[in-house]
Amino acid sequence: MKSATVRIVGISIHNFKNVIDGSLSLENTRKNYRASIVGLYGQNGSGKTALIDSLELLKHVLCGSTIPGKFAEFINVDSDVATLVFEFAVNTLEDTSTLSYQFSIKSVLDTPERNIASLQTVDTKKRVCICNEILKCPILSDKQIRTGKLVDTDTTEVFLPRPKRQLLIGNDKESITNLLVAKKLASAQSRSFVFSREFLDAVRSTLKESMHSDKELSFYTSLIENLVNFGNHELFVINTTNSGLISLNEQPLSFKFAEGNMGALGSMMIPLNEPALIPLKAKDIVIKVIQNMNTVLQQIVPGLTISVKDLGTQVLENGKEGSRIQLMSRKNSREIPLNYESEGIKKLISILQLLIVVYNQPSITVAVDELDSGVFEYLLGEMLRIISEKGKGQLIFTSHNLRPLETLDRGFIAFTTTNPHNRYVRMTKVKDNNNLRDFYYRDIMLGEQDEELYEQTNNAEIALSFRKAGEYFGS
Length: 475
Description:
Layout: E1 5-16, E2 19-25, E3 36-41, H1 48-62, E4 81-91, E5 96-110, E6 125-140, E7 145-152, H2 162-169, H3 173-188, H4 197-209, H5 215-234, E8 235-238, H6 241-247, E9 250-259, E10 262-271, E11 276-279, H7 280-300, E12 305-315, E13 321-331, E14 334-337, H8 343-360, E15 365-368, H9 377-390, E16 394-398, H10 404-407, E17 413-416, E18 424-425, H11 436-446, H12 459-470
Helix pairs in contact: 1-5, 4-5, 6-8, 7-8
InterPro entries: P-loop_NTPase
């Protein structure tokens, strides 16, 4: 597989949470930056988190993992199906290919595993069923290269179109039958079929058994493998669960790093109100991540560093040796447990290593919901400005803090609207000398955009409602 950089260039959301229709380009068409930054702003309940949730769902799909049941509740109440469309740019040294991956989710009852009906009332649970997967890419032919369907699962067959099916998995009847079973199994297990191990293994086997070096088959297989690698190793989604864990005295650490022939990626939860017992290998990872993070941390919070205090070894439940550690904070030669630091510091620590990777690597996408939560607004703006001007990767975030509107190029900023049929827009009629923050405030008052960005509130009515509510307490 050729070394490639995958970047999300567009997202379309339909009937997902409170977004009936919303499309957002993630490209800055104003200026050519190496980094891809998109900050999404808007009032509460206007579809910001829906964008991050769609990316979390995408990661589960690309990894071939079971979709968490919570997504069954994310389908719009007025619809039976939610549909998401993601556009990707796959860049190699030779060229750039544009891919489109579309899928729908529907909510189905999770049938109890019993062979008789129970007289006792059983709580019915819902699960997600993935359907109508469509993968489009450049279609190679002798005459021209055009964009068309490579895989379409909306059929009783394994997938269409048949010429591409024959190319990707061959005509062996037993293999086709096995894939039909795998397709039904993926649906029953709330997994993607296109990115299931069964389908991928079939495509890989066809490529391996190809008598000749089939350029077209190699091209399609490489594109699919690039998306798989992107979902498993290069896409990170940080939702508001992170902030909730911090409030519960857990320190999330999300990371990706490489050192020589060694590397690690993922996330880890470390208790703060008591020593944590972790495997020895995990301890080595934590130490390396913190060492890497401290290089930047002591610059953005002057003099502050984090360390790992080794409290000795202890046998784990599996009989292997583990290490008892505690995260410490050190500033001005004074060391205290990290538990006593502010939640803003803990929030920074939870995502800082990923921001370092975004700055340095083009093949990384990090999506963060409520990036501004607990972070000093001036520091937030300066970090985002530095990443946007000199970084290489892709950062997608939502925020309520408007400071970045003054530090980022306006091509990096998008807004939610009050219209559920057109949730995401970029502001028009903005001049180069306009302060985007002031311009946004002015639009809230005057409504000069094609779509309303803010549903106006009435201060007098708010004050009256507070007074009425107070009557319940005899005030």
